[in-house]
Amino acid sequence: MCGIFGIYAPERDVARITHFGLVALQHRGQESAGIAVSDEGHLMVLRDMGLVAQAFTEEKLRGLGGQAAIGHTRYSTTGATMWTNAQPSVQHGAGRAVAIAHNGNLTNAAELRGELVASGARLTSTSDTEVLAALIARAEEPLEEAVTHAMERSEGGYSIVLLADGKLVGFRDPDGIRPLALGRLEDDWLLASESCAFDLLGAELVREVAPGEVVVVDDSGLRSIQALPPKGGAAGCIFEFIYFARPDSVLSGIELYGARVRMGEQLAEEAPVDADLVVPIPDSGTPAAIGFARRSGIPYGEGLIKSRYVGRTFIQPDQAMREHGIRTKFNALDEVTGKRVVVVDDSIVRGTTTRKIVAMLFDAGAAEVHVRISSPPIVSPCFYGVDMATEEELIASTRSVGEICARLGATSLAYLSLEGLQHATQRPAREFCRACLTGDYPTRVPHEAQLAKLRFERDVISASR
Ligand code: SF4
Question: Binning pLDDT at 50, 70 and 90, where does residue 329 land?
C-alpha cells in the first residue's frame, strides 16, 4: 500500500505538518517513514526504518525547513525491507533533482530500469520508485512534460507525490488504481493517500486527483493537467473499501465505515446462521460485525482483545514475522465460553490469522465458530502495490469454500458475494479494480509480472554481478 502526503505552504512548518499527515497514514505502511522538504528549490530528505514516531524526533523535524514537503510510510511490494528502499527517494539528473514518494507498483519496472542503467543512470536501490524518479530527473524538458513522459512509459498502478524545481507535484496512473486526494488548509494545498490525513490537520477534502491527472502546486497556485486520458473511467482498488483505508476516510464520496457496515449487513442476508454472539476480528472486522449483528439480530460483543501495540499482521514483510505477529496480537475472552460464535473479518488472504483465531476461540470454550467474511474469496494476486505475493499463498486460489473451512477448523464459513460487495460500496462496478477477486486485471499484466515481490530485486542483483 504505502501512505503518501504532500504540502506546499511557504508560511507553514511543512515538515511538522507532513509528520502529522504521516501519523494519520501510519496504517498504510510500518516498515519505514520519510520526509523530504524543498527549500528554495534545494532538497533535503530524512528517512528511517520503523514507524513515523520512531523515524522522527523533534530535533530532526526542526532541521527540515522549506516551502514544500512530501512524506511516505512504506510497506514493501517491490524491493526488500531495507534502508536504501525507504522513501522519499532522491535522484539527481541532467534535468533536475527530484524527491519522490510512491504508492503502487510499476509492472514494467525491470524493463525501464534496464534501459536507464544502459544509458548510464546510477540506481542504488531495488525499488521501482527510483526508476520513476530517474526518468523525471534525467529528462531535460519542463517538469510537467517530464512527468507526462514518465507516466507514458510506466505501467501498473501508481500514485505519486514529488518535489522538483521548487514545486509540489502529484499524479495518478490513468486507471486510478491507487488513491490520491487533494486537500486544502486555508489557502494552502495538500495531497494525501486518504482524506483522514486532512481531518487530523483541520484541512478539508477538495476532491480526488483524477486518473491520469497531474496537479502542480507552486507560488502561482495549483494547476491541473490531464496528462493521460483516463482509461475507460477508473479502476480504484476495491480493497481500499474492504480493508486498506481507514474507516473514517472518504473515497469516491463514500465514508468507508458505512460501506463496511453495509458489507456486514449484506453478509447476514446472504449467509445467515443460528448463533448466540457476533464478534469481530478487531479492528478490521469491526464495522462488518456491527452490520452483521444489526441485520441478523444476534447480539454483538467482544470476544477477542487485540494488543494496540503490535502492527497489522498482513502488512508485515515476511511469513516468519506474520506468524510471530499473530501470536502476540490477539487473545480470546471468556465471553465466548459455551456460545455459538459468529466471527467476522473483512478478508482472508493466506488464512494464517483466521486459522489461529478459530483455534483460539475453541480453546476459550466456544461451542461453535462460524466464520463470516465481508468480501469474496481472494483468488488472484495483486500487481498494483499490495503484498498478496503469489497465487500459491492465497488460500482461496485453488480451494473451495468447504476446503478452506476445513483448513481453518471452523464450524462453517461463508464469504460475501461480489454483487453483495458492490452493492455495499454504493458505487458501480466500472469504477473499480476487482482483479484479486475476479482475475480480471484492468491493465496489461505481462508474464514477467507474474512473480513474487522480490523478483524485480533478484533481476537487479543478478544484473549487477
Ligand atoms: Fe486492489 Fe485487488 Fe486490484 Fe490489487 S488487484 S489493486 S488489491 S482490487
Answer: confident
174-201 pLDDT tens trace: 999 999 999 999 999 999 999 999 999 9
Looking at the CA of residue 432, tell me the nearest atom of ligand 1: 8
- Does pLDDT of 220 surpass 60? yes
Integer Cα distance of 105 and 27 in angstroms: 18
> Three cell numbers at 334?
471468556
Query: Burial letters for 274-294: b for 16+ Cβ neighbours within 10 Å, e otherwise?
Result: ebbbbbbbbebbbbbbbbbbe
Question: Considering 2, 237, 382, 433, which one is annotated as catalytic?
Answer: 2
DSSP code, position 120:
T
Q: How far is CA 306 from CA 15, 130, 309, 329, 331, in A?
A: 32, 37, 9, 6, 7
Q: What is the pLDDT of residue 282?
A: 93
Return d(Cα 10, Cα 403) in angstroms, integer: 58
Cα–Cα dist 334/365, whole Å: 8
> Considering only CA atoms, which residue is closest to atom 2 of ligand 1?
436
Distance 432 CA to ligand 1 centre (A): 9
**Lowest mean pLDDT, pick from 97-106, 149-158, 165-174, 320-329:** 320-329
Distance 15 CA to ligand 1 centre (A): 31
The secondary structure element, H or E, covering residue 269 is helix 256-270
Examine the pLDDT at 394 and tell me if it is beyond 60. yes
How many whole angstroms separate alpha carbon 121 and alpha carbon 451?
A: 25
Centre of ligand 1 to C-alpha 386, Å, is 7
Closest ligand 1 atom to Cα of 381: 5
What does the alpha-carbon distance between residue 26 and residue 43 come to, in Å, rounded to a whole number? 24
Average pLDDT of 35-39?
Answer: 97
pLDDT at position 455 is: 46
Is 2 tagged catalytic?
A: yes
Q: Give CA–CA dist 402/391, Å, rounded.
A: 19
Task: Report the alpha-carbon distance of residue 88 to residue 413 in Å, rounded.
Answer: 42
Answer whether the bond into residue 88 is a cis peptide, omega within 30°. Answer: yes
**What is the pTM assigned to this prediction?**
0.90
Task: Kindly list the structural domains of the chain, giving each domain's residue range(s) and its CATH number in brackets, ordered by start.
Answer: 3-235 (3.60.20.10), 250-441 (3.40.50.2020)
Mean pLDDT of all residues belonging to the chain = 90
Buried residues in 156-195 as b, exposed as e (16+ CB within 10 A): bbbbbbbbbbbbbbbbbbbbbbbbbbbbebeebbbbbbbb
- Which residues does a 6 A CB cutoff place in the pocket of ligand 1? 157, 177, 237-239, 382, 384, 386, 433-436
Check residue 426 and give left, alpha or beta (phi > 0: left; psi -120 to 50: alpha).
left
More confident residue, 384 or 311: 384
